[in-house]
Design goal:
The structure holds 2 protein chains of 2 kinds. Chain A has 2 helices and 43 strands. Chain A is mainly beta. In chain A, a hairpin with a 4-residue loop joins strand 41 and strand 42. The radius of gyration of chain A is 27 Å and the shape is globular.
């Protein structure tokens, strides 16, 4: 008599014993988690669009081309200089603001001065080109967009030519949805509307000749014109070739984040390139120049964002300028040519030690047990040191890196590794403090263009740079430590030329991660182009509402996780929240 | 590397991490027996852990182990229905001819069973769950578990007897 149950049980168990947990199982779980999160956010964005979808308006996008097809020949790819035949001027019919009912109630028409116009997502799929143009209300009051969206196309002899010439003969770009009912989009401060430009790529046609109207390629600037108020604008369209038979959609609300900016008076006044860290509950700001260029301050203050108050820090003998600092569990470790520790709860300084290496701010990271730092030294390239936060004991237990670390490098602590990325090139290095071992990180798919444009999201390193194909707008890249691979992220509508790039300690650009978004400070003095909120995985970028004053030179961009802080040239502190 | 670090807050993750460490191997084996494919099984279990974590943190999961088990079984059934895995691949380490024959008969039986019944057989005879526990996880009445498993055993018994006689 056969014991069927026993045979079944034994067979299943034996088969089960051959099943192993894959070595990459943890990585699969994390990858799946990211994918689920992304899908959830995409669904959320789609719902928002559906809820707010509005009927289209009549479009009159006027682009003018004095010539047919191939005369607008451009040598090379995007960003290369071109010999563009003079073209395009435009005269725009005075728009008739469409005054049909607005679901969100009447408000003043948006004026160019209140709108920041930037390029959003763009792409080519199956021969169709699409480009989102994003219009953000950066004024203090709500305003509405109605009437005919228009576009003026300007031509430059080369991308750096300051004088752009309009085309000569107007070209009316038809409405993509001519039968849709007209409507008005109302934008609160910080909210965005969008229109989308479509067309066929020139490769679809014989002899690369558009049968009808065409938009020229990427050496062309564009200016978005608000009805009755032709003052808004944006930079080059990221086209790689001619776009045939363009059409444009009406204004519609854009699914962008709600960004709020609060500003607070600082008792410290102006501080150029100060030292700042988030302590878990307060923002510590210490040191920096008072703006005169030769008057470094050795005082600091702690800002509590919950009640918007500051409390002064006690005085110290620390005189490093500039000095780096890092939050180490319950204290701030300062380091430059000196080391000291500050405990915010007791407002007490301790552990002062002098006589270290180069006085410029070293790169620092807290590993969970000690502070690891790279101290620069002219001639030798520098030395890696570890500082014990408890007693500021210094040891030289850091192996030599496989590549030189520059003054303008950007460090990122991932929780396991200390990754250091150069300001140029595409190859970073990473240090494992527990094994005291360095490794070379695979080359990023972007070329870094500045220090400061790397951040850690909690799972990935996000970096911005340029690519061969796209040399004037920034393109993102994400490094996944679990797979040791990079992923190319979408291009964002931020011109590399707006970055206040430099090798000095007060060079401008900064990138930080705040909850689900990246925040990029360009260092630009134009307050409307100073700060951008980016959802790097979803190709959504928007400017923040304008800052009351330009970002301070060398201001750190510090995130508490839910709020990001930066100092302004007015001496104020700006706090940015993204919802 | 440390799992569950996909950009989420870590509130309440410790217990989840314990459940992960405790049960991932067992769940992958269970899924492999149901789907018949080790790789599909690992993907199914990875997806379940990734999906359950946010619900767990949101406080929507009370019996974590039971919930993980239920999700894995449901996902396996869906995977079979999507034809991601229809065959029960050989994986035996046996070398004795008679035992290999038994193994093949069991494999044939499982391959012919409907996905839900296959899950019941695996939970009952590999997971050592009671009929009531099996019913709860698969989401069918206890009577269905009893009758389905009885029929499956009857079928296997017939095959084994035939093999013994032949």
């Amino acid at each position: 008599m056969i014991d069927t149950e026993r045979v079944l049980r034994d067979t299943l168990r034996e088969r089960a014993e051959t099943v192993k947990v894959p070595e990459d199982f943890d990585a699969r779980v994390n990858a799946m988690g990211r994918r689920i999160k992304l899908r959830r956010r995409r669904r959320g964005a789609a719902v928002v669009l559906c809820v707010f979808a509005v009927a289209a308006l009549v479009v009159g996008l006027l682009v003018v081309d004095d010539d047919s097809g191939s005369d607008l020949v451009v040598a090379g790819s995007v960003g290369a200089s071109s010999t563009v035949a003079q073209s395009i001027a435009t005269s725009l019919s005075a728009a008739q603001p469409n005054t049909t009912t607005a679901s969100t109630g009447p408000s003043a028409q948006c004026r160019g001065g209140d709108l920041v116009v930037i390029l959003g997502r763009s792409g080519v799929a199956a021969g169709t080109f699409s480009q989102v143009i994003l219009l953000t209300n950066t004024g203090t009051n709500a305003c509405s967009l109605a009437g005919q969206p228009k576009l003026e196309v300007l031509v430059r002899q080369n991308p750096s030519d300051p004088s752009a010439t309009p085309l000569a003969v107007p070209l009316v770009i038809p409405d993509r949805e001519p039968n849709a009912a007209p409507a008005t989009v109302t934008l609160r401060t910080g909210q965005s509307a969008q229109v989308e430009l479509y067309g066929s790529t020139v490769q679809n046609y014989p002899n690369r000749k558009c049968p009808g109207d065409k938009l020229p390629d990427s050496t062309v600037d564009s200016r978005f014109l608000i009805p009755d108020d032709p003052t808004a604008g944006f930079g080059p369209l990221p086209m790689h070739d001619y776009i045939c038979s363009p059409t444009i959609t009406a204004f519609q609300p854009a699914a962008t984040a709600d960004v709020a900016v609060r500003t607070f008076t600082s008792p410290l006044g102006r501080r150029v390139a100060p030292t700042a860290v988030w302590t878990g509950s307060e923002l510590m700001v210490w040191g920096g120049d008072n703006g005169s260029g030769n008057n470094v301050q050795f005082t600091g203050s702690l800002f509590n964002p919950t009640n918007g108050t500051w409390r002064p820090m006690s005085s110290t003998v620390l005189r490093g300028a500039p000095v780096a600092a890092v939050w180490a569990k319950d204290r701030v470790v300062f380091a430059a040519s000196e080391v000291a520790v500050y405990e915010p709860t007791s407002d007490r300084w301790s552990g002062y030690r002098g006589g270290l290496l180069e006085k410029n701010a070293p790169l620092l990271a807290y590993t969970g047990s000690d502070v690891v730092g790279w101290f620069f030294e002219i001639g030798t390239g520098g030395t890696g040191l570890r500082v014990n936060p408890a007693n500021t004991q210094i040891t030289e237990n850091v192996a030599s890196p496989p590549a030189a670390i520059g003054y303008d490098a950007t460090p990122v602590w991932t929780g396991r590794e200390w990754m250091i990325f150069p300001a140029t090139g595409s190859t970073g290095i990473a240090f494992d403090p527990s094994a005291n071992r360095w490794r070379t990180v695979p080359a990023a798919p972007v070329n870094f263009v500045s220090r400061g444009l790397v951040t850690w999201t909690g799972t990935d390193v996000i970096a911005y740079g340029t690519t061969v194909r796209q040399s004037h707008l920034l393109t993102g890249a994400a490094y996944h430590p679990d797979t040791n691979t990079w992923e190319l992220l979408p291009t964002i509508p931020v011109l590399a030329s707006t970055l206040a790039v430099g090798n000095s300690f007060d060079a401008g650009p900064r990138l930080t991660w705040n909850d689900d978004h990246a925040l990029l400070s360009t260092g630009a003095t134009d307050t409307a182009l100073a700060l951008f909120v980016i959802d790097p995985y979803l190709t959504r970028t928007q400017p923040t509402p304008p800052l009351p004053s330009p970002p301070e030179k060398g201001t750190p961009l510090i995130s508490s996780g839910s709020e990001a802080f930066l100092l302004l040239q007015s001496g104020e502190l700006a706090a940015i929240t993204i919802r | 590397m440390e799992p569950f670090s996909f950009g989420e807050r870590r509130v309440g993750v410790e217990e989840f991490a314990l459940a992960y460490a405790r049960s991932k191997a067992h769940l992958i084996r269970t899924a492999a027996l149901i789907t018949g494919d080790d790789d599909v099984a690992a993907d199914v279990v990875a997806e379940v852990f990734a999906r359950v974590l946010p619900r767990w943190r949101a406080g929507n999961v009370l019996d974590l182990d039971g919930y993980l088990y239920r999700c894995v079984v449901n996902e396996c059934i869906s995977a079979i229905r999507r034809r991601r895995a229809v065959e029960w691949r050989p994986g035996s380490t046996r070398d004795h001819a008679e035992q290999i024959a038994d193994y093949e008969l069991v494999a044939q039986l499982l391959a012919t069973l409907k996905p839900k019944v296959r899950a019941m057989v695996v939970l009952r005879f590999f997971g050592d769950l009671t009929e009531a526990q099996t019913a709860k996880i698969v989401g069918v009445p206890v009577g269905t578990v009893k009758s389905s498993i009885s029929r499956a055993l009857e079928s296997l018994r017939g095959s084994l007897t035939k093999g013994e006689v032949g």
